[in-house]
Amino acid sequence: MIGSLFSLVFFGLIIWGIVSIAKRFTRGSDEPGDATVSFRRLFIYLLLLAALAIAATGIEQLLEILFDRSQTIAGDDTARQARGFAFLLIGGPSYVLLFRHVTSRLRVDPTEETSAGWRIYLNATLGISLITAMATLAEVIRAVFDVSDYSAAALASGLVATGVWLFHWFGPLQDHPPQSGFHLAVGSLAGLAAIATGIVLVVLAATDAVYDSFADTALAETPPADRLWEAVSAFAVGAPVWWWHWLRPSRRLWDPTLWNGYVVIAGVLAGVLTAVSSLYSIVFGVAVWVFGDRDGASAAEHFDFLPTAIAFGVTGLVVWAYHAWIYNQVQAGRTEPVRIYEYTMAGVGLIAAAGGITTLIVAFIQAVGPAAVAGDEGAANVLIAAVSALVIGGPLWWLYWNRIEGHYDAAPQAEATSTSRRIYTLALFGVSAIVAFVSLLIVAFIAFEDLFDGKLGGDTILDARVAIALTITTGLLTWYHYGIYRRDRNLAESVQPIGPGRITIIGRLDREHLEALRNGLDGAVRLWERTDATEAWAGDITELLAQISESSDPDVLVLLQGDVLQIVPFRTG
C-alpha cells in the first residue's frame, strides 16, 4: 500500500515537473518582434508531441497484450505490462495538462494559431498518425484474408493511431485550422500512394496469370488470389483517405502553390516517370530479344519482366492522366501553373533523350575501340539501350517543347519573362555546364595520367568513354539553352515592361480576374485576401489593368472594396 502511494507521488512529481517547465518556457513577452517567442512555442509543441507519443506507445503496449492470443495477461509478459503502464501514467497526464495549457493559449492569443510550432505539431500529428493507421490496418485486413500472419501489435497500433487522428481532426483542427492545407496534401499523397499500390497489385495479378498461361511457367511467387486480397487491403485504406483529403474538401482550403506543387510533382511528375520508365524497359526488352544479345535465355525467361513493367506502366499512366486532366480543368488560359506542367514534361523528355544520346556515344566509342571491346557481346545491348531512351524521351520532349515554342511565337514577351521558363532554361544551362565541366576534367585527368605513364592511345579513349560522352551531350545542351537564354534576355531588354515590378492586391478578386492581371502585367502579382470582404470586387477588370499599367512606380499596393479601387505606390524600408 505504502509502495503504491510512493509510486503515485513519484509519477505525480514527474508530471508536475514537465508541466511546470513548459509553463515557465511559455511565460514572458509575446511581442511579435521577440525572437524568443518562436523558440518557446516550438519547445512547448515538441514537448506536447513527445508526451503524445509516450502516451500512445503505452496504450499500444497494453492493447497488444490484450489482443495477443499467444500470451496471458498476468504472467507471461510483465515487461510489456510494466512499460505500457509506465508510459501511459507518465505520458497521459502530461499530455492532458500540456494540451489544456496549449488550447487556453490558442483561445486568448490569435497569433498562436499561425505560429510555426502549432502548424508543425498539428501537421506532424495528423500525418504520422494517418500513415501509421493506414499501414497497420492494411496489415490487419491482409491477416483477415489469410494473406499475412495475425499481428496483435499491428491491430493495437492501428487502433491507437486512428484514435489519435480522429481526435485531432475533429478537435483542434476544426477549432484552430492551419492555413496552408499541408495536412490535406499529406493525406492526399498517402491515399494516392495506397490506391496506386492497389492498381499495381491488380494489374500484376492479371498479367502474371496471363503470362504464366502463355509461357507455360510459374512466374508469380505470390498466388494471384493473394495479390488481389493485398490490393483490396490497399484500396480499403487508400480510397477513403484519398476521398476525405482530396475529393471532399474545397480547393480553397489549399494554399495555391501547395496545390499546384502536389498535382505537378506527386501526380504528373511521379506518374510520367513511372510510365516512361516502364515503357523504356518494355521497348528495351523487346529490342534486345529481336536485335541484341539474349544471353542464352528462353523467351519465358527473357520476358519475365513484362508483368511488372506493364503493372507499373498502367498505374503511372492512370495517375498521370488523371492529374493532367484535373490540371487542365482548373487552369484556364496560359497561366504560370500550366507553364510549370509543360516545362516539367519537356524536362523529363529531354533528360531521357540526353541519356540516350550519351549512351549512344558510349556505344559508338566501344564499337570503334580495341577489338576486345568492339566484339563485346554486350555492345549491341548498349546501342539498343541508347536507341530505346531516344525513342521514348525524344518525342516526349519534342511534343511539349514544340507546344511551348508555339506559345512563345504567339506571345513572346509573356513567355520569355515567365518564371517557369527562366527556371527551366537557367537550370538546364547551369546543370549541363557543371556536368560538362566536371566531365571534361575527368577526360583531361585520364589523358594526362596515361600520357605520363606512356600509355596514351586507343585505350585512353576507351577508359574515358563515359566522360567523353557526357562532355559532348551536356556541352550541346549548354550551348542550346544558353542560346534560348540570350534570346529571351534580349527580348526582355528590348521591350518596355508593362506596369510596376511588384503589385500587391488587398481585397477579394475572382480567379479569372487575377489571372487576367497576371497575364496582362509583366510584374509579379500577389493577392492578399481581405477577411472582412463579403463579396469579390465588382469593378471593371480592364480599367483596373489600365490604371496599374500607367503607374511608373516599382511597387504598388492595390486596395479593392466593392467596386472601388485605390492604387498606392510604396517603398520598402
Describe what you observe in this structure.
The chain is mainly alpha-helical and 573 residues long. The protein has 4 domains: 1-25 and 35-177, no CATH class; 180-330, no CATH class; 337-495, no CATH class; 502-569, no CATH class. The chain is 75% helix and 4% strand. The protein is built from 20 helices and 4 strands. Strand 3 and strand 4 form a beta hairpin. The longest helix is centred in the middle third of the chain and has 36 residues, at 256-291. It is globular, with a radius of gyration of 31 Å. Residues 1-36 and 371-375 have low confidence and may be disordered.
Feature tags:
573 residues; mainly alpha; 20 helices; 75% helix; 4% strand; disordered N terminus
Q: What's the gist of this structure?
A:
The chain is mainly alpha-helical and about 575 residues long. The chain has helices spanning about 1-25, 35-65, 80-110, 115-145, 150-170, 170-175, 180-215, 225-245, 255-290, 300, 305-330, 335-370, 370-375, 380-410, 410-415, 420-450, 460-465, 465-495, 510-520, 540-550, and strands at about 500-505, 525-530, 555-560, 565-570.
